[in-house]
């Protein structure tokens, strides 16, 4: 599968919305516009600096319209990972765009879509 793009960035504190949905995310301090990254949800591979393991991930680039977000963020949910990533540098390889960013009617609809996104990212 053709890689879309790679980038690296440090994990910073976010609003902790993902963990309340059952999909904790690492907020990566990268300027999406400067890298020319399109908003949407991606399947990605993520590696922590200094560690050999690579984790499959679903990654969102966007404003989180369901929560009326104002700032474009880059957030990665690492599949099959638990632990503290704050302050760590992550190396991200985007694999495939899964879907466009969109607003959901409610949190239940968003959670259902996130589960589907995670399943798709695991297969890619």
Topology:
Layout: E1 5-12, H1 17-20, E2 26-29, H2 32-35, E3 40-48, E4 54-62, E5 73-78, E6 89-99, H3 107-123
Antiparallel strand pairs: 1-2, 1-6, 2-5, 3-4, 3-6, 4-5
Explain what this protein looks like in three dimensions.
This protein has 124 residues and is α+β, with helices and mostly antiparallel strands. It has one domain (5-123): Elongation Factor Tu (Ef-tu), domain 3 (Beta Barrel), CATH 2.40.30. 20% of the residues lie in helices and 38% in strands. It contains 3 helices and 6 strands; from the N terminus they run E-H-E-H-E-E-E-E-H. It has a 6-stranded antiparallel β-barrel with strand order 1-2-5-4-3-6. A hairpin with a 5-residue loop joins strand 3 (40-48) and strand 4. The longest helix has 17 residues, at 107-123. The chain is globular.
Can you say what the CATH homologous superfamily is?
Answer: Riboflavin kinase-like
User: Which sequence of strands runs across the widest sheet?
Assistant: 1-2-5-4-3-6
Q: What's the SSE pattern?
A: EHEHEEEEH
Helix-residue proportion: 10-25%
Please tell me the CATH architecture by its name: Beta Barrel
Give the C-alpha Rg. Answer: 13 Å
- Largest sheet descriptor: 6 strands, antiparallel, barrel
Mean pLDDT, as a whole number?
89
SS content category? alpha+beta
Shape call: globular
Here the CATH topology equals Elongation Factor Tu (Ef-tu), domain 3
What percent of residues are in strands? 35-45%
What is the domain total for the residues? 1
Low-confidence stretches: none
Give the total of beta strands.
6
What is the first-to-last residue Cα distance? 8 Å
Name of the top-level CATH class: Mainly Beta
Number of helices: 3
């Amino acid at each position: 599968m053709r890689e879309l793009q790679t980038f690296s960035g440090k994990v910073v504190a976010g609003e902790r919305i993902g963990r309340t949905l059952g999909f904790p995310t690492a907020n990566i301090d990268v300027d999406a516009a400067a890298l020319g990254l399109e908003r949407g949800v991606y399947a990605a591979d993520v590696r922590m600096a200094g560690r050999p393991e690579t984790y499959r991930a679903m990654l969102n680039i966007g404003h989180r319209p369901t929560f009326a977000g104002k700032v474009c963020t880059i957030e990665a949910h690492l599949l099959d990972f638990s632990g503290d990533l704050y302050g760590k540098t992550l190396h991200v390889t985007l694999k495939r765009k899964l879907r466009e960013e969109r607003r959901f009617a409610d949190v239940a609809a968003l959670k259902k879509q996130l589960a589907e996104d995670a399943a798709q990212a695991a297969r890619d």
